[in-house]
Amino acid sequence: MLFLDNLLLLVSMIILIILVLVGVAFLTLLERKVLGYIQIRKGPNKVGFIGIFQPFSDAIKLFTKEQVYPYLSNYNIYYLSPIINLFLALILWFSMPFLTIFFNFNFSLLYILVISSLGVYTIMLAGWSSNSNYSLLGSLRSVAQTISYEVSLALILLSFMFFILSYNIFDFYKFQEMIWFLFLFFPLSLMWVVTCLAETNRTPFDFAEGESELVSGFNVEYSSGGFALIFMAEYSNILFMSMLCSLLFLGGGFNFLFFMKILFMSFLWIWVRGTLPRYRYDKLMMLAWKIYLPISLNFLLFYIGLKLFMMILMF
């Protein structure tokens, strides 16, 4: 019986990963379409009906191109970094709660923080092992940015966790049956979205890939498959963060509406990219350490006090 249970878990894992990769493919198409319409043009519309097969043709093109690597690069680390990056982005999804349980473990929020912080190392090693000045600068920027915003990410998450007194994501769904946390945690919810934008290295915080300054940032030396893996990891993280936003403060739900919420949050990521110009790097750091850190700490104290007050009232 245990063998069959483990087999079912393995099949569920494989199905989830395949569906996430398909979601990533169509997210890239959505982004190109939305950016196209923001810039008053059509976007991909030739391959298949209204460009529906464009992501697959892009994938075939990228993975069949010749793999080049810098002669002075640290080849093994250079080659493995994108693979590990995508692997970490995909195993993040195992914390996603299902009504059929899946890996619905009790410390899923800690698991998310641990795995997302490991992603920093792959970016750092990808930039360093290329032995290029531009990629090293891009990776250093990215690491500094991600570490800075992980602090506020963890503190904002702590406010949510103190409120529900659990590390399990599934409990967020139970607590939001009557009212969404968006209304109870409105400022923190907005801060969470901005922090997630900085965590996923997206506009207006895409300093790791600042084309105007660093050519293409930490992935400048990557081509074909390596570049595609980094690209897929980034979009997988965007989808995951959208799912997390839907669970944390948009009520969860595990029905059709839940997936509509994920779609809306993903669209928000793209909308921000099409609308806002790139931020200034010193302002990005000031935002993390001088604004978000004290505000999230104050909110943390406030919600701890609120929770204690509610517990006193209950008893």
From TrEMBL:
It is a multi-pass membrane protein. GO terms for biological process: aerobic respiration. Its EC number is 7.1.1.2. It is an enzyme of class 7 (translocase). It is found in: Mitochondrion inner membrane. GO terms for cellular component: mitochondrial inner membrane. Pfam families: NADHdh (PF00146). Its main location: mitochondrion. InterPro entries: NADH_UbQ_OxRdtase_su1/FPO, NADH_UbQ_OxRdtase_su1_CS. The keyword Mitochondrion applies. PROSITE patterns: COMPLEX1_ND1_1, COMPLEX1_ND1_2. Core subunit of the mitochondrial membrane respiratory chain NADH dehydrogenase (Complex I) that is believed to belong to the minimal assembly required for catalysis. Complex I functions in the transfer of electrons from NADH to the respiratory chain. The immediate electron acceptor for the enzyme is believed to be ubiquinone. Belongs to the complex I subunit 1 family. This is NADH-ubiquinone oxidoreductase chain 1. It comes from Cordylepherus sp. YY-2021.
